[in-house]
Amino acid sequence: MTTTPRIDPPFAADESTMLHSWLDYHRATLAVKCEGLTDDQLRARSVEPSTLSLLGLVRHMAEVERQWFQGILAGTDLGGSGLYWSEAEPDGDFDGVDTADVAADFAAWRAQVELARRAAAGLPLETVGKSLRRGEEVTLRWILVHMIEEYARHNGHADLIRERVDGATGE
User: Fold this and answer.
1) Which of 25, 46, 55, 166 is buried most deeply by CB count within 10 Å?
2) For residue 74, what is the domain's CATH number?
3) Contacting residues for 29 by C-beta, under 8 A, at least 6 apart
4) Under a CB-based contact definition with an 8 Å cutoff, are residues 81 and 63 in contact?
5) Distances (CA, A) of 125 to 73, 74, 107, 109, 163
6) Among 9, 43, 44, CA closest to 27
7) Mean of the per-residue pLDDT values of the chain
8) pLDDT tens-digit profile of 37-65?
9) What phi and psi, each to the nearest 5 degrees, are found at residue 28?
10) Does 76 reside within a domain?
């Protein structure tokens, strides 16, 4: 039984509502894929040589939320490193899970989701981010579509990892 509320996106809505609803659906899907597992199960790697784990995906998505909504959309200076990565450890979100504090990492992800929601709240989809991405302007619409794609891809990974960890399958 899942405890994370996952609300199906509406079949008919304006574009902004639709995009935000699909993003929230995919955020909730990642949480559902992680429910009911021990810390060690959340740290379990998919298959050698991959460093993918459910906890790594949560940490990665915290980084992605932070980068797109705080760094690009809001223009916040995020400094030279992320929540989990640094120049010395560019894949720290995935590689650093063995001794990670699972509860703290989930709290960080939830906090970044909430900050992202606040950063985008009420903005028109045509809003251009305050920072450039690879020298290009990026709109909120593009960020939302990209985030849906990012979660959908990683939720596919989460499906396979979860099945490997305890055999659970499902939506």
Assistant:
1) 55
2) 1.20.120.450
3) 6, 151, 155, 158, 171
4) no
5) 11, 14, 28, 24, 37
6) 9
7) 95
8) 999 999 999 988 999 999 999 999 999 99
9) -65, -35
10) yes
Total count of domains within the chain: 1
Q: Which two tokens stand for residue 84?
A: 């989990």
> Residue 52 is encoded by which pair of tokens?
């993918």
Global pTM value? 0.95
Residue 3 counted as domain residue? no
- Concatenating the DSSP letter of every residue in 99-155 gives T--HHHHHHHHHHHHHHHHHHHTT--TTPBPSS-BTTB--BHHHHHHHHHHHHHHHH
CA angle 67, 72, 78 (to 5 degrees): 55
Specify if 9 maps to a domain.
no
